[in-house]
Amino acid sequence: MRDKSTGYRIFSVINVGFMLCVLFICLYPFIYMLAISLSSARAVINGWVSFVPVEFTLDSYKMIISHTQFRIGYTNTIIYTIGGTLIALTLMCLMAYPLSKTFLRGRGILMKLVIFSMFFAGGMIPNLMLVIWLKLNNTIWAMLLPFAISQFNLIILINFFRSLPDSIEEAAVIDGMGYFGILAKIVVPLSMPAIATIALYTAVFFWNDWFYSLIYMNSNERYSVMVYLRNIVSGQSMAGAAAGTGSSERTTVYATLRATSIILTSLPIIILYPFLQRFFVKGLTVGSVKG
Amino acid sequence: MNSESRYVAPVSARHQLNAKTPLRKHIRKYWQLYVMVAIPLAAFLIFKYVPMFGNILAFRKFRAGGSPFGTGWIGLKNFQRFLRDKAFWRAFRNTLITSSTNLAVNFPVPIIFALLLNELRSLKFKKLVQTVSYMPRFVSTIVMITMLNEILSPTSGILNLILKNSFGMKPIYFVNEPRFFRALYILTDMWQFTGWSAILYLAAITGINSELYESAMIDGANRWHQTLFITIPSIMSTIMVMFILSVGRLLSVGFEKILLLYSPENAIVSDVIDTFVYRYGIVNNNYSFATAVGLFGGVIGVILVSSANFISHKLTGDGLY
Question: Are A261 and A176 members of one domain?
Fold first, then answer.
């Protein structure tokens, strides 16, 4: 079924060359950051670094790791990520399982509520007001609760649960098992591919978040590590919540520190990515069925 | 439960029966499912629907420490205020221009990328490119923008060094200059999402019946013709759905990214509705006013997505809902 004309051969060669460029463009920023983070400040200022570390040193790593605020932020991010993901998975499984039963009374209305809220939502301010009203601001719950139920992930899960054969549950019902037992002992173990996928989406969301941490929290003790990164980038103290700080001029001495923070904060994703990437894609194909 | 288990009918038949069983019997049998849905439903309603009603703050006065729904009606005062505000219309225009140019570029790019990926003969190489290309999707916006700042830095960034050493150019402060803002927005979006968005198209392409291609080959169609007359029409419905979704999101630009790229110097092109809301609401604590602006944006978003869906139904007989 392959075209064997000369034209197609030329195209194929160009195509492979193009794809090599794509690979380079996707990876180079990380290589560049890694090289800068392992180079001396002098080498970076003089523009000697492009692919490999120059005047290799671990100084900037030692400096960042010794920074209390970095360690607090990193710990917070780990807590938010693990806690947030666990809560999200629990709530979404509990919600998706009944909603996967077409005989559930009121299911239609609930599904409409879920879908409607994907298109129209309370904005940034009403969400903040709610968090403040519930006195969740500056507590860990401000991160763990509001984002627990993602409509997109919920629909992935509902569709997956619906695709499971009814006969397995049927047997459990005959054995007198309740629905909580069926969910925990039969449905969840069978749905591991879908659950792993949404666990990863959720974990990535929590790991990468800086904005909500910034607006829902107001003390150094609570900020996530991405807020730390943002503040290092803008050369700002932790107090600043001023708009847009992305592009004021900064001193090059800190370039190595910025690069180091980038490497350290992206480390889990970079390390785990090759192992987990197959799960990332699965969710998209499972979830593409209409809810 | 046990007394009933003797009468268990085949699943499909049972479900049909359930539609007619009286409510009391239904509840007795399935009460656990209703208990189960109650807790997450409460969380869902509190965190998704209460903020939705919280939009009412747009028509009310906010008092510090008071109710999140405000105290006392002020009618349409907030709306009159921002509709007369030049800065708002600048933000509105910027939102539309940024997102529509982004759509024009970054909507077709993943489709083309998927088509090109599909032409790679080595499956291993294809898999490698795919895997690497959707990695940027999992990188935090703040990490991406920091990397961008480093690469484009006028003092030590690699791009300016190349420009200086090869062309003798003066350093350009890319991230600060208004004229580069939109290009940077679009290119970073391309970097971050092309591989990821291509996945759905690739899945659709993989699903095409290979007999179609074989018969086309017999009819003498070359690869280009096959792409034009088989592949693209076959993935048209996927393209359509993705397009509706994108049009519906026209007003929600990558807010976090813009916030990170924003500077007073490039504000003329970078200030969008969301950064406007952020500045008035979060930075200046002008909650009621900022809610009104956010609500306005949200309502237009809903209108956009419903019209796109309506048009899609008219044109293709299928839509999002």
Answer: yes
Residues A33 and A119 in one domain: no
Q: How many CB atoms lie within 10 A of CB A260?
A: 26
Q: Decide which of A290 and B156 is more confident.
A: B156
Please, are residues B203 and A288 in contact by the beta-carbon 8 Å criterion?
A: yes
Measured between alpha carbons, how far is B273 from B255 in angstroms, rounded to an integer? 9
What's the farthest any 2 CA atoms get from each other in chain B?
89
Flag whether pLDDT at A204 surpasses 50.
Answer: yes
Selected for mutation to probe chain B from A100, A102, A125, A214 (highest B CB count within 10 Å) is: A125
User: Using the 8-state DSSP alphabet, how is residue B48 labeled?
Assistant: I
pLDDT in tens, B183-238: 999 999 999 999 999 988 998 998 898 888 888 888 888 888 899 899 999 998 88
Residue A1 counted as domain residue: no
Structure confidence at residue A118 as a pLDDT band (50, 70, 90) = confident
**Co-location of A159 and A207 in the same domain:** yes
- Looking at the partner chain, which of B33, B52, B68 has a beta carbon nearest the beta carbon of A129? B68
Measured distance CA(B82)–CA(A221) in Å, rounded? 37
Distance CA B268, CA A247 (A): 15
ipTM of the complex: 0.86
DSSP per position, A128-169: HHHHHHTT-TTSTHHHHSTTS--HHHHHHHHHHHHHS-HHHH
- How far the first Cα of chain A sits from its last, in Å, is 37
Q: Which domain, by its residues, includes A47?
A: 6-57
Distance CA A193, CA A199 (A): 10
Predicted confidence (pLDDT) per residue in A261-273, tens digit: 999 999 888 788 8
Mean pLDDT score, A56-73 = 92
**Residue A3 Cα, gap to closest chain B Cα (Å):** 6
Measured CA to CA, the distance from residue A98 to residue B80 in angstroms comes to 46
CATH of B76-316, one of 3.10.20.30, 3.30.240.20, 1.10.3720.10, 2.40.50.140: 1.10.3720.10
Cβ-defined contact of B36 to A183 (cutoff 8 Å): yes
Q: In this structure, what DSSP letter does residue A53 have?
A: -
Q: Which of B33, B150, B222 sits opposite A255 (nearest CB)?
A: B150
Residues in chain B closer than 8 A to A105 (CB atoms): 23, 26
Residue A278 lies in a domain: yes
Residues 6+ apart with CB under 8 A from A31: A51
How many of the other CB atoms lie within 10 Å of CB of B127?
12
Give the span between the Cα atoms of B18 and B187, in whole angstroms: 54
B43: tokens are 């969380």
Say yes or no: A21 and A95 in one domain.
no
Number of structural domains (chain A) is 2
Strands (E), chain B: 60-61, 71-73
* Same-domain check for residues A234 and A193: yes
Which range has the top average pLDDT, A275-284, B16-25, B209-218?
B209-218
| Residue A237 Cα to chain centre, angstroms | 26
Give the tens place of pLDDT for each residue, A129-157.
999 999 999 999 999 999 999 999 999 89
Parallel/antiparallel/unpaired status of strands B60-61 and B71-73: antiparallel
